[in-house]
């Protein structure tokens, strides 16, 4: 495992990672909270695998949902 060292401690974006399930590319997308079944009326940003459809929530999105 190689860990990226970012100057200034900037976190690596979820969108730059690969799908943990199939290794596919993650695409930035936005869906309504209603679609996700969460109590958020506006759209939330998440990373969705273009191959298997697995969804990953960026830290910033999780912070908004909680
Ligand atoms: Zn995948």
From TrEMBL:
Taxonomic source organism: Haloarchaeobius litoreus
Official protein name in the record: YgiT-type zinc finger domain-containing protein
């Amino acid at each position: 495992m190689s860990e990226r060292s970012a100057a200034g401690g900037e976190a690596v974006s979820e969108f730059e990672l690969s799908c943990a399930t199939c290794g596919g590319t993650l695409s930035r997308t936005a869906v309504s909270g209603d679609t996700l079944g969460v109590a958020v009326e506006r759209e939330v940003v998440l990373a969705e695998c273009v191959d298997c459809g697995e969804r990953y929530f960026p830290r910033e999105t999780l912070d908004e949902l909680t």
